[in-house]
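Before the break, one more example. Copy the sequence into your notebook; we will annotate it together after we see the structure.
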Amino acid sequence: MQTLKEAAVGSTVKVVRLTGEGGVKRRIMDMGITKGVEISVRKVAPLGDPIEVTVRGYELSIRKADAAMIEVE
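Here is what the structure looks like once it is written out:
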């Protein structure tokens, strides 16, 4: 299984599962990232943090640690 952290720039992936717990999982879900949602990876910062994505028409920045908790296909 691949995580959002490993997704290639320019690709569009679909969320399969969130593996975070408690506040972290709630924060990810508050961004509109839930099972079945498509995420477009727009850009990764030179040092890899943050990852800039488009979710439901909104442009977001996600920390690498949070992206590692989002399983995609």
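The radius of gyration is 11 Å. The longest strand covers residues 12-18. Try to locate both features in your own notes.
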